[in-house]
Amino acid sequence: MKLVSTRDTRHSSTFRAAAAGAQPPDGGLWIPASLPRFEDMDALLVLPWPARNAEVLHRLLGDEFSRHELDAIVAEALDFPIPLAEVEPGVFALELFHGPTLAFKDVGARFLAAVLARSVTEPRTILTATSGDTGAAVAHAFWKRAGFRAVILYPAGRVSPRQERQFACLGANIHALAVEGSFDDCQALAKACFADAGLSAELGLTSANSINIARLLAQALYYLEASAQLRSRDLADPPVFAVPSGNFGNLCAGLMAQALGLPVKAFVAATNANDTVPAFLDGGAYTPRPSVPTLSNAMDVGAPSNWERIAAFAGDPTSLRRTLRSDRFNDDQTLAAMRELAALGFEACPHSAVAWGVLKRRLRPGETGVFLATAHAAKFPDVVARATGREPALPPALADLEHAAVLSKPQANEGESLKKTLRSLCRD
Ligand SMILES: *Cc1c(COP(=O)(O)O)cnc(C)c1O
């Protein structure tokens, strides 16, 4: 698969090199130079999830991976169910939270790990800054994987104890560092390490952040799965997909699925108060701004890093405004949506509730709607309790962790000190 930069298409990369962290030299992001349109989409949608994934990936990546490798990657990474639940007539939740860390980020992180395991020859240190879900997904994806070590930087005391345990109790090749600072400080520290060419080469530093194209490619696969499950219920009309969005990687993956030939009626970009994109789609200027904290905190992004991809992919603003519907939900509306969903028998996390609420506003009569349920409600027990009056039941993956020991180490908010820590971790 040939990838080109969003800014200057003369810069290109292989998929393997981009997955392993190569960046376009012009500061842009990699996008596929072109995507094939599958004329046999109907036949693809009849295939079971693993067979369809292997076939689609073979058509896209067959120039870089053998069929055997792709079968193994699919079996290893995309090994949990993605059920479609009918929440009310004509409105469905695509449940993306049945992976090991109970959020959709497992899909991209596990696929990336499986790809890297077959693409790099020297030992690698995966360095990632997290405010919650990403760190857990990345830590689990690389846990006990030979040739890899993962270092998770997180702001001490600013992630929930449950989130912290999801990445800080694993041990083995996973190192959690509790930084005396904010999430932005963690990101700045990671950036400083990647910018140090000597350190990067010495430790094989590799990023697993959400702009990695490998993560997006894997996510395109579950849009096909949603349509496959709708068809098995005799719902053949192209659905409207509502995507709870922060960095806009998930929506970008949806647009890729559509480009591959998946019939889609429309996409709905759903945000919280961080509404840079809805404000633009409403007709305003595109104005990135600092994020504000909300209850759906994984979507607290004011300058979405994948927007550049979506803009390059979709072409001019007019055609973007034609393909995308959008709106935002504030925290009160989010809590009300969680309450209404609970009354319908669906326990939602705040992110999924934003998607459902905005979908309901933007869905037109007769359309079938699918909202992406991106995390399990039990990852956000306080918000769920505030909305519904009772805490969600703990799934086994989280219950097992309640008494596990947190193995993280304190880390000063200072670049040289972090580099020293990394070097000593990598000597062990
Ligand atoms: C990361 C995340 C989002 C936002 O996804 P993007 O791809 O960044 O738009 C939404 N919901 C949950 C639960 C997340 O963890």
Largest sheet: 6 strands, mixed
User: Could you give the order of strands across the largest sheet?
Assistant: 4-5-13-10-11-12
Helicity range: 40-55%
Tell me the fraction of residues in β-strands, as a range.
15-25%
Kindly provide the radius of gyration, computed on alpha-carbon positions and rounded to a whole number of angstroms: 21 Å
- CATH topology grouping of the domain at 82-102 and 213-393: Rossmann fold
* Secondary-structure arrangement, i.e. CATH architecture of the domain at 82-102 and 213-393: 3-Layer(aba) Sandwich
How would you describe the shape? globular
| Name of the level-1 CATH class of the domain at 82-102 and 213-393 | Alpha Beta
Ligand list? pyridoxal-5'-phosphate
Low-pLDDT stretches:
none
End-to-end separation? 37 Å
Mean pLDDT, all residues: 94
Secondary structure tally, helices: 19
Structural class: alpha/beta
